[in-house]
Design a protein that fits this description.
By secondary structure, the chain is of the alpha/beta class. Helix 3 (187-199) runs parallel beside helix 5 and helix 21 (585-610) runs antiparallel to helix 22 (619-636). The protein starts with 11 loop residues before the first strand and ends with a helix.
């Protein structure tokens, strides 16, 4: 049975007086165990159920941080929202005198929201009640998320299945980077994604706050930075503190990124004296790599950076501070006579060495503030001190090189979720694959990884659908045992977690339906949905290969409705493979029904597009899908048809999307 091998079990065990049996024999009767994500370290399954009714209460014991009480209260609200039960507790409070307890949470000590803090937990469910034990409240909160995933129902009502779960993370750094600089993301976007992160046990928010397109934080010592570099869209310092506190309450670290010396145009709008070449400068409206760069030869640059970093260090308590350092092509340095003279005078051979000079001048500033420098892998140069962290985005080779040279590192290469690649691509990327060329000491310097949500092609409406549910697959890779690698089972569980994440206010599902109504110009969206569920946006950086997109372009069209894992296309591909292997009449009938739907859909979509001009650019794609479906139907009927031209046309991108069923049809034709 799928998913059975993902969980470590024993044949029979006796824990706390309860007899536990192997998972395989109960998966069908208790499917919640096979839906857990991330997969826990060890699951023992017992016989019986703890029934939940309107007397269910929660008690917190031990010495937790104060955050444990609102966390337990949020658990209660999510539980009553799922079950519809009128639970008696409004809030979980310290020292409550409860006559009966449904869930007891026992915590040894307050957790520190720092790298490497203890996050393990033990969850036990008996027919009499539920107990979560953890050294820290951070671990206990992870246990609450697992417990919510175990919530089940039958004809008698809701229950938690009897079980014993011991769990801990594989990597201590499990992050998500959100770019609020290219497209500004209001506080509610950040908060709901923090809730999503906590639900899948991620513990680091990397907040990208400056770019060529915007300087997004209030700086009191140099207010022109945000006043002139943000179009009025920036976070006040109180708002930054609000996010840090919100994240800390969920056991999540927040650390900022101020990208220098490149990607720096927004810095220069208000302070052109920081630039390598004379201004004036304007906020960039397009996407790409731009030339404006901070001048490493000017003392004023370091004075302003020190002031900014000092203000931010007081807001972000985390020990790490990201200075970017990526994609500086040095064109303005090459053109500046004074910079070339500076390099010659000091024996600086090239722009890589000049950037190292720049970075090394930042290290004492950060050291004085109690911060450790993090930078993209371009900052890895032979003369850099080893007390910095390398953030690998160009490939695992740089991470391996960093570990061998004594640097700590985290991985984002392979986790670029903005590239709209399927979840399977990310899921099989491991920060420490079995064959990595590192010894045990070097492996210990690889702390984990981060999913990266760059925001060129996302807005407030679409960002959640680009992060979720795929990021849950990355969260599992960073939490669960390395042996957890069944792609099809991962997809099955993503469908479940996608629904559970909605209760946190995430809009990855509901906004898609809203956008389709807008695009269709009314409530009738079924023809558009049929097409949207078999296409995916152009991947990697192909969407903007013609440079047509700018920061104020419409992100409300078919590629914005489409998602990275086209559900119907993936389902159809699996159905075709099963039919080709087994030759079942039932599978053949299901394939035929799907092909007939696609064949008939073009007429309906054409009628919809007649009154919604925004849809008309997608009609050639819809026509190609119809022709592809009719070709496959002819093949099923045993009719020989020329296919090359139809397949070739169906592979052509249209309206910034691609059909995802062409390969499956081609396999069907070859039968």
């Amino acid at each position: 049975m799928k998913g059975k091998r993902l969980l470590k079990t024993v044949a029979v065990a006796l824990v706390m007086g309860v007899s536990y049996i192997s998972l395989g024999s109960v998966l069908e009767s208790e499917p919640a165990f096979s839906n857990l994500i991330p997969v826990p370290r060890e699951v023992l399954v017992g016989e019986g159920r703890f029934r939940i009714d309107d007397t269910f209460t929660v008690k917190v014991s031990g010495e937790p941080d104060e955050r444990m009480y609102p966390a337990a209260s949020r658990f209660l609200r999510r539980l009553d929202q799922r079950t519809g039960l009128f639970l008696p507790q409004d809030y979980v409070e310290k020292g409550e005198n409860l006559s009966e307890v449904g869930l007891e949470i026992v915590v040894e000590r307050p957790g520190q929201v720092n790298l490497g803090e203890e996050e393990s937990y033990h969850l036990s469910v008996t027919a009499a009640g539920v107990r979560i034990e953890a050294e820290t409240d951070l671990g206990a909160m992870h246990g609450l998320e697992t417990l919510l995933q175990l919530l089940s129902a039958d004809d008698r009502g809701y229950y938690f299945p009897v079980s014993s779960i011991s769990d801990m993370p594989r990597f201590p750094w499990r992050g998500l980077m959100i770019d609020s600089a290219r497209h500004f993301m209001p506080l509610d976007v950040i908060k709901r994604n923090l809730d999503g992160m906590a639900a899948v046990k991620m513990n680091v928010l990397h907040w990208h706050l400056t770019e060529d397109q915007g300087f997004r934080v209030e700086v009191k010592s140099y207010p022109k930075l945000h006043e002139m570099g943000s179009d009025g869209m920036f976070y006040t310092q109180d708002q930054l503190k609000e996010i840090v506190a919100y994240a800390s309450d969920r056991g999540i670290r927040v650390y900022p990124e101020f990208d220098v010396p490149g990607h720096a145009t927004a810095w220069l709008v208000g302070h052109p004296e920081m630039a390598s070449l004379p201004g004036p400068y304007e906020i960039e409206r397009g996407w790409g790599i731009f030339d404006p760069t901070l001048d490493p030869t000017k003392d004023v640059v370091y004075e302003i950076l020190e002031a900014v970093f000092t203000e931010m260090a007081a807001i972000f308590p985390d020990e790490y501070f990201h200075i970017g350092g990526d994609e500086n092509e040095g064109h303005h340095w090459d053109k500046a006579d004074h910079i070339q003279a500076f390099m010659k005078e000091r024996g600086i051979a090239d722009n890589h060495q000049l950037q190292s000079y720049f970075n090394k001048r930042l290290i004492p500033i950060l050291d004085e503030l109690g911060k450790k420098m993090v930078g993209w892998d371009e900052i890895l140069q032979p003369d850099m001190p080893t007390n910095i962290m390398i953030h690998s985005w160009r490939g695992q080779d740089s991470m391996v090189a960093a570990a061998k040279a004594g640097y700590s590192s985290i991985l984002s290469n392979g986790y670029y979720i903005d590239l709209m690649q399927p979840a399977s691509d990310h899921y099989l990327v491991d920060p420490l694959p079995a064959d990595i060329d590192l010894n045990e000491d070097q492996r210990s310097r690889v702390y984990g990884g981060e999913a990266t949500m760059w925001s060129e092609h996302v807005t407030v409406e679409t960002i959640d659908s680009r992060i979720w549910p795929r990021t849950a697959a990355i969260a599992e890779r960073l939490w669960s045992d390395q042996s957890v690698d069944d792609v099809e089972d991962m997809y099955r569980r993503l469908d479940t977690i996608a629904l559970q994440l909605e209760e946190l206010g995430l809009t990855h599902l509901k906004n898609r339906a809203m956008m389709m109504r807008r695009l269709a110009g009314g409530y009738e969206t079924e023809p558009l949905r049929v097409l949207a569920d078999v296409v995916e946006p152009l991947k990697i950086y192909r969407r903007n290969s013609d440079l047509s997109y700018r920061s104020y372009s419409p992100y409300t069209l078919l590629p914005d409705v489409a998602v990275a894992d086209a559900k119907d296309a993936r389902r159809f591909g699996a159905l075709v493979d099963q039919y080709l292997e087994m030759g079942g009449a039932e599978d053949k009938a299901a394939i035929r029904a799907q092909l007939e739907e696609w064949s008939e859909n073009h007429t309906a979509l054409s009628q919809l597009a007649a009154r919604s001009p925004a849809l008309r650019e997608a009609l050639p794609l819809s026509e190609a899908l119809r022709d592809l479906a009719e070709l496959a139907l002819s093949s099923l009927d045993g009719e020989a048809t020329e296919s090359a031209a139809i397949l070739e046309r169906a592979r052509e991108p249209v309206a910034k999307v691609e059909l995802q069923v062409v390969d499956a049809v081609e396999r069907l034709l070859a039968k």
